[in-house]
Specification:
By secondary structure, this protein is α+β, with helices and mostly antiparallel strands. It has helices spanning 3-18, 90-101, 104-107, and strands spanning 21-24, 36-46, 53-60, 67-86, 114-119, 123-124, 127-129, 132-134, 136-148, 151-156. The chain has a domain at 3-46 and 79-145: 2-Layer Sandwich (Alpha-Beta Plaits), CATH 3.30.70.
Length: 166
């Protein structure tokens, strides 16, 4: 899965769970009306020093020409997201996430490729805007899955063999 795919899957899952508008941060345009949740991908980390496996697959460009061999390391990755809730009771938007993580059935829309591994505490972080406090809340969500980014590692040239009697 690409980072974009994981981010999009989490946004869809949160929208289904919360019933609120959920957006990716930094998309541009006007913010939706409150209440809403904004999801920001803060980074990724490889969880082990070495890949779980390396898959090798042949990729034929043309039956009569060279054959590329791809090496595909299977790497367990953790994607880290920061979720910000806006509205009159922003902590109430984030609280169901903690409960949903405890119920495997609620994570099924993310399976089999992704699993929510951890959620942080919910932080009440109001912001001073236009001479008034705007209610906000924030929490971190850690999602785990496998990446399979393949690269060409070898090219095998095929040449016809002809045998002539001497």
């Amino acid at each position: 899965m690409t980072d974009y795919d994981v981010h999009s899957a989490l946004v869809r899952w949160l929208a289904d769970l919360s019933g609120a508008m959920v957006i990716k941060t930094h998309q541009g345009g006007e913010a939706p009306s409150v209440p809403y949740i904004a999801v920001n991908m803060t980074g990724t980390v490889q969880l082990h020093d070495h890949p779980w496996d390396i898959e090798f697959t042949p990729d034929r460009e043309d039956e009569d020409t060279a054959q590329d061999v791809r090496g595909i390391p299977v790497i367990e990755v953790e994607w880290r997201f920061s979720c910000h809730a806006y509205g009159p009771n922003p902590t109430d938007l984030l609280r169901p996430i903690r409960s949903a993580v405890q119920l495997p059935q609620r994570q099924e829309p993310l399976h089999p490729h992704l699993t929510i591994h951890e959620v942080s505490q919910i932080r009440n972080v109001p912001d001073w805007l236009n001479n008034a406090w705007e209610p906000r809340a924030q929490m971190d969500i850690y999602v785990r899955g496998l990446t399979r980014d393949g690269l060409v590692i070898d090219v095998i040239d095929e040449a016809p063999v002809t045998v002539t009697p001497s």
